[in-house]
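Subject: Predicted fold for Succinate-semialdehyde dehydrogenase/glutarate-semialdehyde dehydrogenase, 479 residues

User T.R. writes:
Posting the sequence so we have a shared reference for the thread.
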Amino acid sequence: MYEVRQLIGGTWGADGDAGQFVVVDPADDSPVSRAPIASEAAVAAAVKAARAIAPSWAGTAAAERGALLHRAANAVEAAIDQLATVQTAEMGRPIGTARASVEAAVGTLRQYAELGPLHRGRALAGAPEAIDLMAVQPRGVVAVITPWNDPVAVSCGLLGAALVTGNVVVYKPSERTPATGWLLARVLDEHLPPGVLTLLTGDGRVGAQLAAQEVDVVAHVGSTPTGRAIAAACVRTYAKAVLENGGSDPMIVDADVDPEWAAEQAALGAFANSGQLCVSVERIYVHRAVAEPFLGALVRRAEAMRMGSGRDPATDLGPLVDRRHRQHVAAQVRAAVEDGARLRCGGTVPEGPGAFYPPTVLADCSDGMTVMREETFGPVAPVLTVASFDEALSRAARSTYGLAATVLTGSMSNAQRAWRELPVGTVKINAVFGGAPGGAAQPRRGSGQGFGYGPELLDELTVAKVVHLGAPGGPVGHW
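User M.O. replies:
I've generated the structure tokens; pasting them so everyone works from the same file.
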């Protein structure tokens, strides 16, 4: 079992005054990790210690910060097997995709190591005898609160961008993956000055206490309710909130696409990581011209998936993160069937240990069903048949979320309409995943605010200061 420790003021320790908690393997219910719950006093002490070290880290040359982050990225790469193994043990992700996630994290750290020293302000056109400029400075103390579903890649994005721009970080990983966050923090801390990175562990109460502290930024990836609570806390403290919350991402399947290929894309979007991705396909609008062959192909793909422990390289679909989450997913499916949806496959909670839930396809869904309105975050593909692309576009836009959307179409005009009209941060045409590195979207409405990735994240984590340097007055009148 992993014994997690916290990192405060450059010192590793337990701080178990508020208790401890144990995380079990969602595949077999065996204990995986034990972690302390940070006390309210520890949270306050952590922020105070981070505040004390902030000026020296902000004063470190940008090139030096970038070089340290490069070394940290190399260390994370060397620890890929460890980080993938603990991630699989805590949240069930198949080991191959867990490794790929850590590899992506390494790339993100290297990206920010390069971009950080290049991040700069600009000169302004003022009086000829003066100097006017906009200087960029770190914001100070950044609280980073991360989710369990992609714990290494998401954390490395926020941590890398915050650190390379000269901020100190108080890092709170999800209570469902504390050992993953602890191991990542250990690797990074070895290549940073003491105190620059702080690690706190615990449940949502610890996250709430951290967000309520006098920090300068709260950067959060996770659920919409948590994001709303963080935004409210930031209003009270004047901290900046950078939020990527939940989503209910639509997929539109147009009449002119190959239904087999469309089903492949839909299965990838709905079932990858057991549907536990922020940008999972959560609702599908398929044109009636291809609806039946599409549904048939989607069911075949779902039924062919091998469900099992993430440690088995042959596993296609690992367990959900825990049984509590499985109850949430199963309840949405049951409610949809009660409201008239047709269960084409899956939908039954298997017996035995773990938190497994089969890939599930629902046909004849309607807009009012919870599974079509709220975030399911499980391996469920609810399908609604439409009569036209216009209808699909209209229904897809009816959501309180605004994270991402996928559109499968052979029509350039429909593709253009889709990216212009869908009220989301990211629109993917003819590919459910992928895209150029460095893309930075702004989620909308219930899905959050601010840039969470790419070069623009550096802007979120820094502040611009306008400086006017005029010549001294008096008889001299020049420098």
